[in-house]
Amino acid sequence: MIARNVNIVTDKAAAFKLIQYGAKQTALELGGTTTVKSGNGVLARTVSENGGRGPILIDMRDKAQAEGDIGADRQDTAAPNVNITVRDDAAWTGRTYYSPTVTGHAVQVDVRDRGTWFVNNDSSVTALGLSGNGRIAFTGPQSTLLDVKGDLKGSGGLLDMRVDTSNGITDRLTIGGKVEGKHGLLVRNSGKEANIKTMPAMITAGQKGEGDFALKNKGQIVEAGVYQYRLNKAEGEAGGDAWRLVYAGEKPVPPAPPPKPGPKPDPKPGPKPGPGPQPQPDPQPAPPPQPAPAPDVDPSLSTQARAVVNTAGLGTSFNLWNAERGMMASRLDEVGRDNAATGFWMRNLGTRQTIDNGLGDAFSQKLAGMRLGADRSFMTEQGRWVLGGLAGYTRADRNLGDGGKGKTDSYQAGLYGAYIADDGTFVSTGLTYNRLNNKYNSIGTDGSSSRAAYNRNGLGLSLDAGRRFGFQDGWFLEPRMGADYLHLGSANFDSNDGMSVRTGSGTVLQARAALKLGRDIEIDKGMVTPYVRVGVAKAWANNGDVVANGITLSPGMGGTRFEVGGGVMLNVAKRHSLYADYRYTRGQGYKQPAAVEVGYRYQF
Fold it and tell me: For the domain bounded by 303-603, which CATH number is listed?
């Protein structure tokens, strides 16, 4: 029977019932654009009647799509041999099933020439062929077993399997004979943690052979939860071959060398009679057995684990907040030379930061932010007070490596104040609240996407003190010291593929010192003030751990940072002020090659 370019759908029966009566073969060919879907989940029921011995051939080819199982029911007492071929871009979704009461059958499946068999439930075959980019994908609702009684023949095929980390098991291919050729193995990643110690081998062969499997995941690495794994071939329990996952950082233990034969013993004379029996010392207890040495393991973090720590680590949020603090600080710098009573201002910032928290690879985040604020001055006998408020938004776009991306939308509101004495001494402070909306999308070694989104609240406090020393011709020198405190609230979230992440509330404390050199130059209807600046800062974190799948990860904050920069402030037409600033920052685990800030103020 040949079915080409047709659509076959049944309601409650099998799509085909193939009955073998005699010694000749019975053939079913599905080709072209044919699609077959049976109502009861059975594609072909194969039956042998009246002693029929000939095989049944089922050939799926030429992009045909067939869905349903192939086998025999309990009411069938005998079934013929069945040869199933899936080739030429055709696809079959189903399993082989035979009731224990059915006798006399053998099932051979050959997947080749870009054909695909989607094994959606446990199946058993007598022999299996896989070649020519043929693909066998395990797609059952839980871990799926494909049992091959004989050999795995052919070369150049692909197995598409999964790690069922929630139950500590995997899809499995068991081969009674041997593996003859070389094939690829694609293992689907998971966000859940894998228990490698209890997980069985993914592929086993009862006999040793020359065949092998190579991971097709990127870098030949499988990712399950926090860590990465590789495929290891070793001797199976029955003396054959076994392929299982081991930590990517685990070094394979070489087999022990075979013992060398010792010299042949020379004949010796018989023993001489010895003295009488001597008293024996009390027996000593045997030493307790020593535990086997732990494997030499340095686990590597998965791409999603790196995305998590690079997004949820305290250092990432602090570096964003610290850049935002700079916009408020630039306004507080400006009030020292601004005698206007009331005004409003705006600042815009653009920068790119490269951060290395010590876990995984360094990553970059690009920041673009804006602040709007207003303040008012109050004169006193020995100086003046400035009080104001601000609000703003900053967007951070992260490049997490390996194709992964991250993003934070930061919404900020705050209050600030400063006191400027007539002798040039100043003290300033600022209090800010942040709402951080975070998300990431990491690309695993199997090409899959792992995503999560979560929110976090932050409360920041800054304090600065210094003095401005004036010299001739408008020159000035301004040393200052500062301290910053940032508290970030806890965040709990789960990724789309099952990784569970918990971060407790944490704090960051930063100490700063800076020196600014500049000059006030009067111009027509205004003043221009160019300046240069150098600074140093150091931050410390408390409770900055990220817990993923119950595994604690501790991203670092980096070391001491050094900053150089410069800028210009321009007052024109008495009411208008312009501002531009550039700074370069570098330190252990942190680099900011260019932060550019521009601003404007209108004075009432």
Answer: 2.40.128.130
Q: For residues 117 and 144, is the Cβ–Cβ distance under 8 A?
A: no
Mean pLDDT of successive 10-residue stretches along the chain, which has 604 residues = 80 74 76 85 77 80 93 67 94 87 80 97 95 96 92 97 76 95 95 81 93 96 92 88 86 46 52 49 47 48 94 95 95 77 93 92 95 94 93 97 93 97 95 98 95 98 96 96 98 95 95 97 90 97 92 91 96 88 96 97 89
- Residues 6+ away with beta carbon under 8 Å from 198: 168
Three-state DSSP state, 473:
helix
Closest CA to 348 of 101, 601, 41, 73: 601
Strands (E), 402-525: 404-421, 425-443, 449-467, 469-470, 475-488, 491-494, 500-503, 506-519, 521-523
Q: What is the CATH number of domain 2-247?
A: 2.160.20.20
pTM of the predicted structure, to 2 decimals: 0.84
Query: Which distant-in-sequence residues (6+ apart) come within 8 Å of 600 by Cβ?
Result: 345, 346, 576, 577, 578, 579
Sequence spans of domains, the chain:
2-247, 303-603
CB atoms within 10 A of CB 553: 22
Asked whether 14 and 40 are in contact (CB, 8 A), the reply is yes
